[in-house]
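Private note to self, pasted from the team thread so I don't lose it. Backbone tokens:
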């Protein structure tokens, strides 16, 4: 029996998973899926494209099942655009919300006031911020950074496993950081960040670090 070419098994599994998605979508949206994919050519193109992208991004059966559950509860029409469908399967779905989270926690880590491992909604958000650059993360607007952020987060989400997030040594005042101190420092930090974004230049406390975390 001839040897199986390298990668054939994985591709075959991805194709089977894509066919499974098609069958489940037919069950969820029997009439509307036909309207979205009215010809066999479009059906085959959807399955082939989905299989390729699931293989490239490392999408698993469990991730597909989670995505299909979300689609069943949230969608009136089948999401046959492959990037849209895959977003339902990913652990991070709202990229703008993830950017806002990363920007807020990056600022807290810079001020030694938070951004601990348990504060992040998913490790991929932290590692995307790390690859994006901590200085840039703190000082960029969503409008200016969205395209690059989406690309970086997409890449990090393909890792499947993410390293642990390092803890931050929290700054204290008089040996004990009270809630009042925390509130005051957070208010100051937000004011500095707002000025940095509005003015385009790095505000005091937001200059580029010598060593990027």
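Design output:
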């Amino acid at each position: 029996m001839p040897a199986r070419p390298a990668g054939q098994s994985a591709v075959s599994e991805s194709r089977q998973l894509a066919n499974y998605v098609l069958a489940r979508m037919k069950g969820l949206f029997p009439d509307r899926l036909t309207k979205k994919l009215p010809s066999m050519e479009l059906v085959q193109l959807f399955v082939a494209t989905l299989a390729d992208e699931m293989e490239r991004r490392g999408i698993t059966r469990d991730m597909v099942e989670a995505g299909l559950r979300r689609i069943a509860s949230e969608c009136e029409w089948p999401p046959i655009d492959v990037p849209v469908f895959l977003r339902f399967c990913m652990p991070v779905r709202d990229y703008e919300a993830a950017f806002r989270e990363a920007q807020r926690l990056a600022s807290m880590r810079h001020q030694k006031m938070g951004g601990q491992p348990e504060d992040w909604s998913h490790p991929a958000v932290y590692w995307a911020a790390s690859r994006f650059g901590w200085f840039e993360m703190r000082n960029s607007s969503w409008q200016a950074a969205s395209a690059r952020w989406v690309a970086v987060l997409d890449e990090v989400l393909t890792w499947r496993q993410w390293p642990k997030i390092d803890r931050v040594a929290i700054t204290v005042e008089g040996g004990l950081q009270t809630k009042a101190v925390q509130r005051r420092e957070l208010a100051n930090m937000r004011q500095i960040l707002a000025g940095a974004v509005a003015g385009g230049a790095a505000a005091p406390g937001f200059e580029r670090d010598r060593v990027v975390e």
